[in-house]
């Protein structure tokens, strides 16, 4: 009789241990979401907004570290002019733009 009681109480505590482990896993994944995934999504939205507002005449910093001026935009491709001699025009993807400085509007 005591063996049956010991066996049933062990299975009950084992079931509670499994429930507790599931709760801890949910808590850990919740922390991972708020500390890793959510900030990354927020940063991606910010970059997408920046790239959608790029216009001709803006000064950009490329991911390779070059500064240039946008002279044409076609879909996901931009033509960037580097330097002062006006001979260095390179087509590149919008995704290669790391930072944008808006052109001064003449008012």
UniProtKB/TrEMBL annotation:
Please give the organism: Roseburia faecis
Spell out the family assignment given in the record's similarity comment.
Belongs to the YajC family.
* Mode of membrane association: Single-pass membrane protein
Q: Does the keyword Transmembrane helix apply?
A: yes
Q: Which residues form the signal peptide?
A: none
According to its UniProt entry, the protein's GO biological process terms are: protein transport
UniProt keywords, alphabetically: Cell membrane, Membrane, Protein transport, Translocation, Transmembrane, Transmembrane helix, Transport
Kindly list the places in or outside the cell where this protein is found, as annotated in its UniProt entry: Cell membrane
Q: Does the keyword Electron transport apply?
A: no
- What's the name of the protein? Preprotein translocase subunit YajC
One Gene Ontology cellular component annotation held by this UniProt entry:
plasma membrane
Segments crossing the lipid bilayer: 16-37
Q: Which gene encodes it?
A: yajC
């Amino acid at each position: 009789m005591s063996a049956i009681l010991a066996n049933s109480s062990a299975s009950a505590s084992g079931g509670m241990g499994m429930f507790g482990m599931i709760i801890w896993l949910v808590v850990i994944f919740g922390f991972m979401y708020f500390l890793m995934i959510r900030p990354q999504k927020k940063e991606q939205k910010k970059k997408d907004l920046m790239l959608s507002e790029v216009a001709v005449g803006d000064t950009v910093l490329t991911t390779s570290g070059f500064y240039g001026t946008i002279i044409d935009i076609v879909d996901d491709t931009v033509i960037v002019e580097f330097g002062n001699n006006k001979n260095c025009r390179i087509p590149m993807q919008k995704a290669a733009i790391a930072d944008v400085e808006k052109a001064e509007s003449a008012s």
